[in-house]
Design goal:
2 domains, two-stranded antiparallel ribbon, disordered N terminus, alpha/beta, five-stranded mixed beta sheet, 413 residues
Length: 413
């Protein structure tokens, strides 16, 4: 029903519907008016479906000797996000009627599926979801049914992980975090690796999601080869932490890509050494390093950082000096590209969502259950990614100059 049709409902009609209802329970309670109206609406829609199936209205003469007709109704309980509703489903004599609203053997509406998946994506266990829905709606849903709802996502996960990708990604980030999985009868650590790209339109996209135990050159070459098989021909800049074997694999799979130690990771790891009350001040002084205009001024800013914080946080200074040659390639880029590389909200907001989704679970019984939660969390957050990254056009113009021989021709015109 459209909003314009809703506004056409008169006060008299509403008064007739409300009848003697006076309290919240009269409206929204277990046997309240809302559930009764929902049941009547569903039954009315099913009657309309039956009419469409048979090709004639109820009691119409066109149905005489038509070969098929209505044949009573069957009672059916349907679980909805308003609780359980009992409806009467019409039948036809040939048993050919296949309702769309509530299919045969379907015991719940799609809205309930969406709610279950939303709760699952937030890290709630199957038992937690069952308890939540029972308490909130009075809907008694079996653990088996909830498991089937979430298992249905696995086909989507497989399709999503194998979908074709864009041929060129100007910037790709790789990050990881540790989760616990029960495998072979014991709980062990697994690292979730997220490969996150920004395409030529400036749109954010999770291009890969992998679970590994021991990363190395062989593992990363397999991952990058899979991305190539899915259509990625070129990456301009790849930003990652010090993942074992990754730089060598990038050189093999994408030999023209510039490998850059991720500034986001460097800042994050550095601030792990700092108590809360000094994080802001330390972060501001680190920003002076990676926002410097030249390598020389960046090194000078690092020297200043050491003078200010070296006695307290010598480990931070040591880390930046040891990784200096891997940190500084981005200083050769114009500021428009650097802003995209060292912006923290791109990677950090996604990681925060994923970590939150797995935190409540303690550990996962299978890798499939972990992958379902991660996929649903990514699907939820990516719905908000409808705008290009900030100042993308400025960065794209710089990419077109710096990588002219590899820049897609259709964007050059």
């Amino acid at each position: 029903m459209t909003m314009s049709n809703i506004h056409k409902i008169s006060d008299e009609m509403l008064d007739d519907l409300l009848g003697n209802a006076k309290t919240q329970d009269d409206l929204f309670g277990k046997d309240g008016l809302i559930k009764q109206i929902s049941a009547r609406f569903m039954e009315r829609l099913l009657e309309m479906e039956m009419t469409n199936h048979l090709g004639y209205m109820k009691h119409a003469t066109e149905g005489d000797n038509s070969g098929n007709s209505r044949n009573g109704k069957t009672k059916k309980s349907v679980k909805t996000d308003n609780g359980e509703i009992e409806i009467a489903v019409p039948r036809d004599r040939k048993s050919e009627f296949e309702p769309v609203l509530v299919a045969k053997r379907q015991s719940h509406l799609k809205g309930l599926d969406d709610q279950v998946l939303s709760l699952y994506a937030r890290g709630m266990t199957v038992r937690d979801i069952q308890s939540h829905l029972t308490e909130l709606y009075g809907t008694d849903i079996s653990i088996d049914l909830i498991s089937k709802m979430t298992d249905a996502v696995l086909d989507d996960v497989k399709e999503w992980r194998n979908r074709p990708l864009d041929p060129v990604y100007p910037i790709v980030f790789i990050d990881g975090f540790v989760v616990k999985c029960r495998l072979d009868g014991r709980v062990s650590n697994r690292t979730v690796y997220i490969i996150y790209g920004i395409n030529m339109e400036g749109q954010k996209d999770v291009v890969g999601l992998y679970i590994g135990e021991n990363e190395g050159a062989k593992f990363w070459l397999q991952v990058l080869t899979e991305l190539k098989n899915r259509g990625v021909n070129d990456v301009f800049i790849l930003c990652a932490d010090g993942l074992k074997g990754l730089p060598e694999s990038v050189e093999t799979a994408f030999p023209k890509a510039i490998f850059q130690t991720c500034i986001v990771h460097m800042v994050r790891h550095s601030l792990n050494y700092v108590p809360y009350q000094e994080k802001k001040a330390v972060a501001e002084d680190l920003k002076k390093i990676y926002q410097s205009s030249t390598r020389e001024s960046a090194l000078s800013a690092l020297d200043d950082f050491e003078l200010t914080w070296g006695d307290k946080y010598g480990a931070i200074v040591k880390s930046w000096r040891q990784n200096w040659e891997k940190i500084t390639p981005f200083l050769d880029f114009p500021i428009e590209i650097r802003k995209v590389i060292y912006t923290t909200n791109i990677v950090e907001s996604l990681n925060a969502t994923l970590r939150k989704s797995v935190r409540n679970r303690g550990h996962f019984s299978t890798e499939d259950s972990l992958m379902k939660v991660l996929y649903l969390a990514i699907r939820g957050v990516s719905k908000k990614w409808n705008m290009p990254v900030r100042d993308w056009k400025l960065a794209l113009n710089r990419f077109a100059i710096m990588f002219q021989d590899r820049f897609p021709e259709k964007l050059m015109t």
